[in-house]
Amino acid sequence: MRLGLYLNLYGTPGERPQLADAVEQARLAEQAGFEWVVLGERHLHRPGYHEILTSMTWLAAHTSRIGIATAGIVTPLYDPVVLAETLAHIDVLSGGRLTAGFVLGYRPEEFALYGVTQSERVARFEEGLEILTRLWTSDEVTYDGKFTSIKDAYLSPRPVQSPRPRLWNGGRVSAVLERTARMCDGWTTSFNELDADLPDKIAEYLSYPQGAESLGQEVILCREGYCADTSQAARQALEEPLRDLYDAYTGWKRTSTDAARYTQGWDDIVNRSVIGSSAECADRLAHYEEMGADGIILRIQPPGMPQAEALKSIEAYGELLKP
Q: Which end of the chain is more exposed for a tag (fewer CB within 10 A), N or C?
């Protein structure tokens, strides 16, 4: 099973921008055999949240082999040409380690900040991804769209990976699953997607026709994770900071249909996560592999968890990855 480490990009009050803890975790994950480090995106966040694209560049510069992935970039907020060029250059600087994961976004204040009408987000997403993909794979692009028009445009340099880096897309409704199959190469779930819902959603995603330029259909599950000597030790390390994060999510997701999932009990969380002793975590990974997962992204460190606790868990998962 390929594992990704979802990095905590939260700042602390009064902190100057730095990513020392994330770099330390990324280097350890690289040594431990993780496939990717994975970054998310947030804006208008009082505690502080490191910007995603520059953070990817910083992490690429401080690692050598591990993949640099996103889950995901709020695509409708971006000029697609700028996004295509920036991500292409991250692939170049990293030596071909980029996986670009996207989402539609849901916070009204973020759309307002960027001057984007939220009701246009699907149209902007599809147009933006089409432009990005064409710029990555074509010698020259002319495109006349609803939001962007370009003539005789090209990128130099283009991405290192051929024909292009892989594209992921996150979401849970049928329209997202169909769009992912048509325009991307992998589906990323929500961290709170229920195990009971996954088999039908995986089957639905895989049933949709792939686009002509698709590089395949992989299923990437996002799960809470903490591996320790015992299940009690895992709970002691994770529960309080994760609860604090979920309390914050109930505010951020006030306009989202899945807001209620962040009020679930500990047993509910464990039953849709990879949390516990090494044996329990191994069983959970095998469970998801049997379900059809091609990779699992683990969120090990919610804000407030000490760095030492996160490092111990990364090392424990590394032991599970050994042949």
A: C
Task: Evaluate if residue 251 carries a pLDDT over 70.
Answer: no
Angle of CA points 225, 227, 232, to nearest 5°:
105
Rounded CA gap, 174 and 166, in Å? 21
Please confirm whether the linkage preceding 163 is cis (ω < 30° from 0).
Answer: yes
Cβ-Cβ contacts under 8 Å for 61 (sequence gap 6 or more): 93
Helices (H), the chain: 20-32, 52-61, 80-93, 108-113, 121-137, 174-183, 198-207, 231-252, 266-270, 278-291, 307-321
- Tell me 157's DSSP state: S
Angle between helices 307-321 and 20-32 (to 10 degrees): 20
pLDDT tens track for 222-248: 999 999 999 999 999 999 999 988 887
- CB atoms under 10 Å from CB of 96, counted, come to 13
List 150's β-bridge partners, or say none: 143
| Measured CA distances, 50 to 7, 10, 152 (Å) | 11, 6, 34
pLDDT single digits (tens) 105-116: 999 999 999 999
For residues 23 and 58, the answer to whether their CB atoms sit within 8 Å is yes
Domains: count for the chain:
1
Query: Which CATH number is 16's domain given?
Result: 3.20.20.30
| Per-residue tokens: 112 | 């307002």
Tokens of 84: 């295509």
Residue-number span of the structural domain to which 235 is assigned: 2-321
DSSP state for residue 226 in the 8-state scheme: E
| Type of residue at 284 | R
* Structure tokens belonging to residue 69: 């992935």
